[in-house]
Amino acid sequence: MTDKAKSIVRRTGWPDSSSRAVVTPLQPSVVYASESPDALDAQYEGRAKGFTYAREGHPNAEVLAQKIDRLEGATGGLILGSGMAAIAAVMFGLLKSGDHVLGGNQLYGRSMRMMREELPRFGVETALADPTDAGAFAESLQPNTRMILLEVVSNPTLRVSDVAGIARLAREHGILLVVDNTFTTPRGFQPFEHGADVIIHSVTKLLAGHSDATLGYVAARDATHRKAIYDTAVTLGLTPSPFDCWLAERGLYSFELRYDRAEANAVMLADALADTPGVKRVLYPTRPDHPDHNRAVALLGARGGNMVSFEIAGGRAASNALVRAAPDIAFAPTLGDIGTTLSHPATSSHRALTPAARAELGMSEGFFRVSVGVEDIDMLIGEFRAAIAAAAG
Ligand SMILES: *Cc1c(COP(=O)(O)O)cnc(C)c1O
């Protein structure tokens, strides 16, 4: 090694500056050097604050967690590598073999798989029930029911859960109520005010908002639960990437602006679609023709969210034509991006179901789900009307 190169490998730190950066720093360090064994002891025993190893926590995750905590009225929330990592941390952290879990029968696809396939392999019993009917949940209770997993607004038919009834049931029976608040977001719904014990988010979606970071969030009311979830997450290695956390924090600055705009657009798009020839049916929670309209208004007020679903006549050919006629609207099975995206449940989220099972849930080949973005609404309505006309012609 040349003399010049010898010192290059030493990390010399950051240049001095009497001015400070305005942007949150990105810290990708995996390890943190402590001053002495005593200092490390103090950190591990909680007498001193400090990071040690990124899997156990890092600054970019903490900055992001604290911001989402503020939105949810939570403390000690945790950021994980994806929404599913958050669900896994809750399930594996709080359940044990012999427990029973009850979930809504229209949960997010992978959550459904967690219930049907993964948990039973570890001796956890599961059942699914109609979340719009607290009576159905009551009938599915078992003496060993330990947890209920609920989404407030279901995908993609946008049914509104009977949160009040199910929360009452959970309270009466000492069952943990876990709410996946991804669709509704803290702007639309505050689970802790409605009896939830644990809140989960796919931060990937509306909170981060730009389809460039995959992250999850979990917050528990009870400190013992928080510790159990944290320990399981660290053991299973559900660590989020610092860069993703950094991106998501930046996305979060505009979350409320984006959400309000996207929601206002969704209301107008839903009304416009209902008025468009070739559209058989429009689903939007606060529209008077929605099957759960009264509950939506009672639970969410005017906050119907940014998701709209609709159905056109015709089979796969008409659906292909619609998507091809709207090249500027990303046909992509996600939601919550700043721009409008379109998904087709029959070939994506619900492709594993038989056509008959899909029909039972109200999802034909002509059924689409729209995650409405912040674009100019007249442009958006024009694009959808043209695409629907193309599908019909
Ligand atoms: C996307 C989503 C998830 C999973 O989140 P990932 O970040 O994709 O792992 C969980 N629940 C709901 C309601 C979702 O929409």
Bound ligands, each once: pyridoxal-5'-phosphate
CATH superfamily of the largest domain: Type I PLP-dependent aspartate aminotransferase-like (Major domain)
Main sheet strand line-up: 1-7-6-5-4-2-3
Looking at the overall shape, the CATH architecture of the largest domain is 3-Layer(aba) Sandwich
Instruction: Name the overall outline.
Output: globular
Summed up, the helix count is 15
Just give the CATH class of the largest domain. Alpha Beta
CATH third-tier fold name of the largest domain:
Aspartate Aminotransferase, domain 2
Got a strand count?
12
Low-pLDDT stretches? none
Helix/sheet category: alpha/beta
Order of helices and strands: HHHEHEHEHEHEHEEHHHEHEHEEHEH
Our measurement of the CA-to-CA distance between the termini, rounded to an integer number of angstroms, reads 73 Å
Largest sheet: 7 strands, mixed
Number of domains: 2
Average pLDDT confidence is 96
Strand content: 5-15%
Write up this protein.
The protein is an alpha/beta fold and 393 residues long. The protein has two domains: 37-252, Aspartate Aminotransferase, domain 2 (3-Layer(aba) Sandwich), CATH 3.40.640.10; 255-392, Aspartate Aminotransferase, domain 1, CATH 3.90.1150.10. Helix content is 40%, strand content 14%. It contains 15 helices and twelve strands. A seven-stranded mixed beta sheet has the order 1-7-6-5-4-2-3, sandwiched between helices. Strands 8-9-12-11-10 form a five-stranded mixed beta sheet. The radius of gyration is 23 Å and the shape is globular. The relative contact order is 0.12. The mean pLDDT is 96. It binds pyridoxal-5'-phosphate. Pyridoxal-5'-phosphate binds next to α4.
